[in-house]
Amino acid sequence: MNGKMKITDVKRISLFAFILGIVACTSTPSKEFDDSILKSIPPEIPYAKNYDGHLQGMATDFKQHIFWSHTQQLVKTDLEGKILKVIDVQNHHGDLEYYKGKVYVAVNFGKFNEEPGLADSWVYVYNSTDLTFIEKYPTPEVIHGAGGIAIHNDRAMVVGGLPETGGYNVNPVYEYDLNFNFVKRHDITSGYTYKGIQTACYFNNYWYFACYGSTRVGVVPKVLVVRQTTENNLEFVRSVDVDMSYGMIGLKENEFIYSNRNLENKAAKMQLP
User: Fold this and answer.
1) Which fold does the domain 30-271 belong to in CATH?
2) Facing residues of 158 across strands?
3) Backbone torsions φ then ψ of 28, nearest 5 degrees
4) 153: burial class by Cβ within 10 Å (0-12, 13-18, 19+)?
5) Burial annotation 191-227 (CB, 10 A radius, 16+ → b, else e)
6) Rg of the chain over all Cα atoms, to the nearest angstrom
7) Which residue in 229, 123, 226, 217 sits closest to 163, CA to CA?
8) Confidence at residue 49, expressed as pLDDT on a 0 to 100 scale
9) 162, exposed or middle or buried, with CB in 10 Å at 0-12, 13-18, 19+?
10) The whole model's pTM is what?
């Protein structure tokens, strides 16, 4: 080279940099916290007691915020639980997910845990900045009531209820693209779980699905650990007898923030066995 750069070369470099910028902005967002942020998250995070219903799920932008769904309210806080925004929503808003600047919520206006035909399942989408409503999508394939959602690589997995009678021994997980065109149903061979799956998240190369327990029917709370195969199917790996049924967020390795009905309006850290 003669040490001189032609105008055409400058244009090529500028175009290449512009394309790299687009790729960087549209790539899959981080699904884990930086170490510096992890250190700032307290061992317990309180949430308000005066919301309607109960806590349905938690999600995070893995930077500064946690989003909480309380059946009839959506709440945005900082990582210590300081409230930044609250909006009222229709009953029943369930578990939620943050993804690329939006908050996605699994919603059911019909009945849960019944035979097909009685649910009215949707996904509602909100702006993560101020929780303003953006759009909604019907998900009629979720036949027992949409109650939870997790998203990874532009694939949304919607989960929901399960009838108590009728011999249900698998948990259906319904896959959609982000326009909520139905892709396929995955049957998780977990055995019966009480009222199906309540919350979901993707973390550390696994999908996690948290389930209620019931002493009446003799079923303990569980977290189902599921992996994605090379054929893009979901494969059940194992279940862990812990209760994360009010929400879970992966922190690092096997550590989570979670909540359940026994934590008295707070989320806490737990090492998943």
Assistant:
1) Tachylectin-2; Chain A (2.115.10)
2) 149, 174
3) -60, 130
4) exposed
5) ebbbbbbbbbbbbeeebbbbbbbeeeeebebbbbbbe
6) 20
7) 217
8) 86
9) buried
10) 0.89
Sign of CA dihedral 145, 147, 151, 157: negative
Nearest to 161 by CA among 199, 191, 189, 125: 199
Phi then psi for 211, rounded to 5 degrees?
-130, 150
* 124 half-sphere exposure, CB direction, 13 A CA radius: 25
Burial class (CB in 10 A: 0-12, 13-18, 19+), 46: middle
| The residue count for the chain | 273
Contacts of 253 (CB under 8 A, 6+ apart): 204
pLDDT, position 21: 42
- Give residue limits of the domains in the chain: 30-271
Residues of the chain with pLDDT below 70 are: 1-30
Q: How far apart are CA 208 and CA 226, in angstroms?
A: 6
**Cα four-point dihedral sign 259, 260, 266, 272:** negative
Of 162, 163, 187, 183, the C-alpha closest to 173 is 187
Query: What are the C-alpha distances in Å from 151 to residues 128, 164, 243, 251?
Result: 15, 27, 21, 16
Local structure of residue 92 (DSSP, 8 states) = E
**H helices then E strands: how many in the chain?**
2, 19
Supply the pLDDT for residue 273.
85
The alpha carbon of residue 122 and the mean position of all alpha carbons in its chain are separated, in whole angstroms, by 15
Of the candidates 61, 99, 93, the one whose C-alpha atom is nearest the C-alpha of residue 78 is: 61
> What local confidence, expressed as pLDDT, does residue 269 receive?
98
State how far the Cα of 190 lies from the Cα of 187, in Å rounded to an integer: 9
What local confidence, expressed as pLDDT, does residue 30 receive? 64
